[in-house]
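User: Teach me something about this protein's shape.
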Amino acid sequence: MLVADDERLLADTIAQGLRRLSMAVDVCYDGDGALERISVNRYDVAVLDRDMPGRTGDEVCRSLAGSDAGTRVLMLTAAAGIRDRVEGLGLGADDYLTKPFAFAELVARVQALGRRSAPALPPVLEQHGVVLDVARHTVTRDGRPLALSPKEFAVLHVLMRANGRVVSAEDLLEQAWDEFADPFTNAVRVTLMTLRRKLGQPAIIHTVPRAGYRIGGPE
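Assistant: First, the predicted structure itself:
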């Protein structure tokens, strides 16, 4: 997801909190930076401050609404009047949250918008005895709670969302890490190794040679 706000401390704090919940977050501090990132990356959700230098959040929102990116927009702003809300939603925003706000509410709204991205997914995923609850940020296997790191949770979430389809290492890196991830890193391989160990036997994450990884039953 993308967080764009000219209050740098706020933007960085939001991003840090969301990353702790295993979300891959890019951050920028003005509308021009937001449009630049949107032009090269696909985001499930964009959190936009309306009043940013350069291109405003309104312009970024209008650009997203007129595209086929499928990005859901959460306006985050101090403009709290009814007219402001109506105007923001009229620009194409999917949701509107005013400052100051409770972080828990921001998370709930972001997760709800993420579920509305195509294809729509339920908040709880279950495959091969593994139950992943996005809202509660919990994972169990055959009823046994698993203590996963944020990146392990994120990788498992991406694989379970694919529902048996092969996910390349590049796609895992793009969806579970942020824009500063080194494309030559071995982070994906290391995270998969620890995730497999925690999931236990029988193995459900399978390597497809020269293609990637997938969730499936015993082979």
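Now, about its shape. Residues 103-116 form the longest helix (14 residues). The mean pLDDT is 86. If you'd like, I can walk through any region in more detail.
User: That's plenty for now, thanks!
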